[in-house]
Amino acid sequence: MLPLILLAGVADWLASAAGNLGFWLLAAGGIGLVIFVHELGHFVVAKKCGVRVEAFAIGFGPRLLGWKRGTTEYRLGLVPIGGYVKMAGDNPGDSLQGDGGDLPSKTVGQRFAIYSAGVVMNVIFALIVLPIVLAVGVQFHATTIGSIQPGSPAWKAGLQKGDVVVAVDDHVVDDFNDLIADVALSGADGVVIHVDRPRADGGSDRLAIAVAPEFDRTQGRYVIGVGPSAAPTFEVKQDGAAARAGIVAGERIVAFAGAPIAGVDAFEPLRAENRAPTVTLRVAGSDGQERDVVVTPAAQAVPTCVVGIKPHQGRVKALRGPAAQPDFLQLEDDLVALVAADAPEAGRVVAPIADAGELEAALKQAPAIGAAARLRVTRDGKSLDLPLPPGFTPSAHADIALTLEPPGRRVRALPDFPAAMAGFPAGGEIRKVNGVEVMNWADIKQRVEKAAPQEAGGAPPELVFTVVAADGAESEVRVTPRVEFPPVDFGLVPTLLMIERSYPILEAVRVGVSSAGYMLKNVYLTLKKMVLREVSASNLSGILTIAYVSRSFAETGVTTLFFFLAVLSLNLAFLNLLPIPVLDGGHLFFLLVEKVKGSPVSEKVMGFSQLVGVVLVLALLLFVTYNDLRRFLM
Questions:
Q1: Residues 528 and 621 in one domain
Q2: Within this chain, do residues 508 and 616 fall inside the same structural domain, yes or no?
Q3: Residue 464 in 3-state DSSP?
Q4: 310 assigned to some structural domain
Q5: Final residue of a domain: which of 400, 423, 443?
Q6: 100 & 207 share domain
Q7: In terms of DSSP bridges, do strands 411-413 and 382-387 run parallel, antiparallel, or are they unpaired?
Q8: One domain for residues 246 and 223
Q9: What is residue 131's predicted lDDT score, i.e. its pLDDT?
Q10: 267: pLDDT confidence band, cut at 50, 70 and 90?
Q11: Helix (H) or strand (E) holding 233
Q12: pLDDT value at position 300?
């Protein structure tokens, strides 16, 4: 029960859960070490103060193994969600022997030292581990921006793909997750992002760009709309097509079927619906040596149904640069087409526009039309043909951010697909599928894809779409879906770009201490922002996510795992200081009350508060476990 904001992807956890047993064991051992360090602090100080320790346990529930030495039972529990040190007389109602070995017989100062020792040990652990691993070298996610969402705060501010983030405000960023965390915790105040922007000559320019984050309800935090950069190498699936062909982890794909490719674009051809029985990939190893490998891709077994429709995504979400000129486009305009205004073909549709790709293709045709080129839009229910402003070039498509028109039921039928051949009306809005009302594009897509054939090799059942045409007329269109198989599987998984950072030992100590302070500050800010509803509690993670992320770091390297364990240790230290009964912070709070009033809190109050604390902790445990399951399974 160690809630964290863990900004790490977990989409493939089910596929990998059964494999890499050694990494899972290493991760489990690492988490156990953090818990052991915490409980060891309580244990050692309790012994030093002469308190009789009855049990030292890692984990809860049924005992897996254990032994007894002196008055103390040492045990390993089945449920690995924490640990405890059972001291004589530490629970209300415990019988006291009066021999000086009971916890209540100790002074307030001694008890304060005992209850705070776990937190202190976790901080010491982090302060020891961080400088060591930073001196040896730790793998971090590169701070290179790999993607920018059109219309997002980053897009509006002028950040570009390939920018290397150096700092957010005055905080130096070493990991892409630091950027995400800094933005999430900045709130609506805005941040200044310092980047190195590569130049064509191989150098770079240092820029300071002010960005105003926006709250994303889906993610439950403030975002700027950027994603990390993918690596030019791939994870090779065990027993996958690439592995069987002899490709090993760390090799780069430099050519696909004879066509050169580079960097992160290498994965795009692998997504194509390639039906060739074999494909030749040219790969390059870390030594630069290239070789050709013939891969027999595996066909995906599960077919899907398509009817050939796509949602209309021509609503203007944001504008910048030349596209933001007066008397041109406005937010919420709905792009329809590129048209020609010259006689005798005034109003002739040159190219329809339903999404960003079609906008780019349409604007490339604009120079051939010249001054007569117009963008046809729908604004407030009226159709307008807007002349392209001076200086507006085809590349300006990148300055127009388009989005799905809510609720996303207006669709366009693609040529030579079943919907178009069935007479699907242009610009029709789907209201029902097989008589069942649909709310959005996701509903429509799901119902089409699940239209399975009645028997193996047979045709899928006919779908009946209730469609409202652009003129308001409602009709039913009967469409028989086409069965298609997903793209073939090459057994290669894209990975994020990583970079190793290491420091001289004295610098490692400075960076380690600074990092520890930054992490503790972020835990505090996270809890504060949750109270202020600027960070959603859905970002909290429990033992399942912690275990998965630990395994991922273990796979990256031992130093990276221990860096994460230091982060985990600091989180455990901070959260245990919260004044919640049954947690260390709750005990420390009651000791302060006892010091002020001159006598212990009554047994009745203590017993009730312990019960409330247990309920709160169990509720939190259930909540974060629900969050974990929702991430992994939904």
A1: yes
A2: yes
A3: strand
A4: no
A5: 400
A6: no
A7: unpaired
A8: no
A9: 96
A10: low
A11: strand 230-236
A12: 66
Q: What's the pLDDT score for residue 270?
A: 64
- C-alpha–C-alpha distance, residues 463 and 441, integer Å: 16
In a shared domain, residues 168 and 246? no
pLDDT digits (tens, 9 = 90+) for 216-255: 988 899 999 999 998 877 788 888 888 888 888 778 888 8
Output the DSSP codes for 531-570: HTTSS-GGGEE-HHHHHHHHHHHHHH-HHHHHHHHHHHHH
pLDDT per residue as tens digits for the range 112-139: 999 999 999 999 999 999 999 999 999 9
- CB atoms inside a 10 Å sphere around CB 29: 14
Q: Is 308 within the bounds of a domain? A: no
Q: Please say whether the beta carbons of 389 and 355 come within 8 A.
A: no
Q: Active-site residues: which are they?
A: 39
State residue 127's pLDDT score: 95
Domain that holds residue 171: 141-229
- The DSSP secondary structure of 2-19, one letter per residue, reads --EE-----TTHHHHHTS
Distance CA 364, CA 293 (A): 38
Q: Can the peptide bond before residue 344 be classed as cis, meaning omega within 30 degrees of 0? A: yes
**For residue 287, is it within any domain?**
yes
Residues 237 and 154 in one domain: no
**128 and 10 co-located in one domain:** yes
Could you read off the pLDDT of 74-124 as tens digits, one per residue?
999 887 778 889 998 887 777 777 778 888 889 999 999 999 999 999 999
Residue 307 in any domain: the answer is no
The verdict on 23 and 95 lying in the same domain is yes
